[in-house]
Design goal:
The protein has 132 residues and is mainly β. The chain has a single domain, classed as Dihydrofolate Reductase, subunit A, CATH 3.40.430.10. It is 11% helix and 34% strand. A seven-stranded mixed sheet has the order 5-4-6-1-7-10-9, covered by helices on one side. The protein has a three-stranded antiparallel sheet with strand order 3-2-8, with no helix packed on it.
């Protein structure tokens, strides 16, 4: 599966059950990459403009195939590392408090590309792509 995750500089994903950002430019960027994005209920409100292109399933990581793009905000990915063949990281380039961290060992992946763009909530967002 392909996972897309938003993180801060310390790889934080979530703090006290709150997402770090709701930047719509990140969602637009992801939807330009993926035909369909698999999510759980927690992320549904971020994809309001793309309801016809999302699949909502609380077990989306368990059910994902090799080519499925999964946007992950509130799930620890450590137990899914054997299924992950590509990682898309959106970096906020800031330090936030976090209670859930992205713990996938990126040294097991090849760095593919990096792109920077301005978001609507952050001056600079960096997209990094890693592949096995």
């Amino acid at each position: 599966m392909i996972v897309a995750v938003c993180v801060d500089d310390r790889m934080g994903m979530l703090f006290n059950n709150r997402r770090q950002s709701r930047d719509q430019f990140v969602i637009n960027d992801l939807m330009n990459i993926a035909e369909t994005v698999h999510i759980n209920d927690f992320s549904e409100e971020l994809f309001e403009d793309y309801k016809d292109r999302i699949e909502i399933d609380e077990n989306f990581l368990e059910n994902a195939t090799d080519k499925d793009v999964c946007f992950v905000e509130n799930i620890d990915l450590e137990s899914y590392t054997d299924k992950i063949n590509k990682v898309i990281l959106y970096l906020w380039n800031r330090h936030y408090p976090s209670s859930l961290k992205f713990k996938v060992d990126l040294s097991e992946y090849n760095f593919v590309e990096e792109t920077e763009f301005q978001g609507n909530s952050h001056e600079k967002i960096t997209r990094e792509v890693y592949s096995k």
